[in-house]
Amino acid sequence: MKQSILFIRSFLILFISSVFLFSCAIDQEKNPDVLPALEISNVPYGSDTRQKMDIFLPAGRSSDKTPVIIYIHGGAWIDGDKSEFLQVKPLVEQSFPGFAMISFNYRLFDFVSKQNRFPAQEEDVKAALQFIRSKLKEWNISEKIILSGASAGGHLALLHGLKNKESDIKGLIAFFPPTDLTSLFGFNNLTTLGLTEIMGGTPLTVPANYQNASPVNFASSEDPPIIFFHGETDQVVPISQSEKLETALKNVQIRHQFIRVPNQGHGFAADTNAALLRQAKSFLGEL
Questions:
Q1: Which tens digits make up the pLDDT trace of 233-252?
Q2: Sheet of strand 256-261: strand arrangement
Q3: Which one of 3.90.1150.10, 3.40.50.300, 3.40.190.290, 3.40.50.1820 gives the CATH number of domain 36-284?
């Protein structure tokens, strides 16, 4: 008798477990949110060999709940690579859970051939965003975009976001960005030489080039929320560049946050980056 009861109990447990697992399998098939994480590397968005991007899509994504954070690498517009993002990707995932992430290369200025003078880099940001927008449905992600970058990448993110007034860009994040190329010119000999070549002249000979490439000149009341960080001991891009941006944003009363980072230069420690990304998410809130 006792053996019969144990047999029946075991049978019931097995039966209930099977029904539960079968039901879960059916729910997954019916649930469009259950999509696996996906990484797509070196996707071309133009014909140049530099015009490629990496896409990181989260599991369970959907077009109504998966915003996109786009990262633009630094390198003084002459160097760098989209792989720079991999250094901070785990930190971004922690602070922006459930977000799709994209990083892309852009054409770099070549001192030897003189190819790809500015605004080639600005044009590539536009082309990359146009391509991304064309793929939102295919990738099952939202049209809500946060544009971010560091150094020259921060400059490009700010320039695009402030200059183009696109409603799907919901926030801008910049790390130690150049913001006013006219005043940056002459900061040191390398800056003077580099900007002269990249911009095709000096602020005196081609003033419009510098003005059109400076984010501070495009701040307006239509801009998205902006948060930016700058090391107080930065010897590559002086903190005065972020101070100028803060003044421009205050003048047009745009919601922004400028965080000075003590004892940090042009590039932050990992724990500093983690804390700043948490602040960025808190500032931008839910999209």
A1: 999 999 999 999 999 999 99
A2: 38-44, 52-57, 100-104, 68-72, 145-150, 169-175, 226-231, 256-261
A3: 3.40.50.1820
